[in-house]
Amino acid sequence: MMAPFTVAIDGPAAAGKGTISKAVAAHFDLAHLDTGLLYRAVGARMLQGEEPIAAAQSLVAGDLENPDLRTADVAQAASKVAVIPEVRAALLDFQRAFARRSGGAVLDGRDIGTVICPQAEVKLFVTASAEVRAQRRLAELGERGFQTDFDAVLADVKARDDRDMNRADAPLRPAEDAVTIDTSDLSIKDAVACAVRVVAAARDT
């Protein structure tokens, strides 16, 4: 049985951490958890009228399969519920258990390396400029049929950054020992290759 090996990948919205996390997990045959989906699922249930703490405490795996979790409204709701300490506490044990599963795991979110898995074998902080991230999000929304404009998306990105970075509980920030990857001027291939090199070096030590 393989010993646990945790890769913690943090960063702001649309920086590329999800894409990188999936690619790293596939490359090293590790399990993957997009922890943001947990908060999106709680946010989606809040938009349906549920109290967020109760929604977090009763979350089930099926909630993560909701096709509406990637919409802009749910993303904003996720950012709002994520500032509630009781919501974060309710989801903590699930994330930590997943991280230390046999065979290893990759988790991406905003506080994986700082709060959820401070002892992770690898910590990455994936970032990019707000303008680049807004352009990426605009393209993503357009592909899904949502009509909006760059200025509105940029405002949403900056508002979410402000909430995530300045919340009292588990603010978004790189862990002291995290390797930062700025994807502003990197192709997906180059960003993934950079992450793979960092993880490979840690596995070989």
Total number of beta strands: 5
In terms of quaternary structure, what is this?
single chain
Low-confidence stretches: none
Rounded to an integer in angstroms, the radius of gyration calculated over CA atoms is 16 Å
What is the gist of this entry?
This protein is of the alpha/beta class and 205 residues long.
Structure commentary:
By secondary structure, the protein is an alpha/beta fold. The chain contains 9 helices and 5 strands, in the order E-H-E-H-H-H-H-E-H-E-H-H-E-H. It has a single domain, classed as 3-Layer(aba) Sandwich (Rossmann fold). A 5-stranded parallel sheet has the order 2-3-1-4-5, sandwiched between helices. Helix 2 packs across helix 4. The longest helix is centred in the last third of the chain and has 17 residues. The protein is globular, with a radius of gyration of 16 Å. The two termini are about 20 Å apart. The model has no long low-confidence stretch (mean pLDDT about 95).
Layout of secondary structure:
Layout: E1 6-10, H1 17-28, E2 31-34, H2 36-47, H3 52-57, H4 72-81, H5 85-99, E3 105-109, H6 112-116, E4 122-127, H7 130-143, H8 150-166, E5 179-182, H9 188-203
Parallel strand pairs: 1-3, 1-4, 2-3, 4-5
Helix pairs in contact: 1-9, 2-4, 7-8
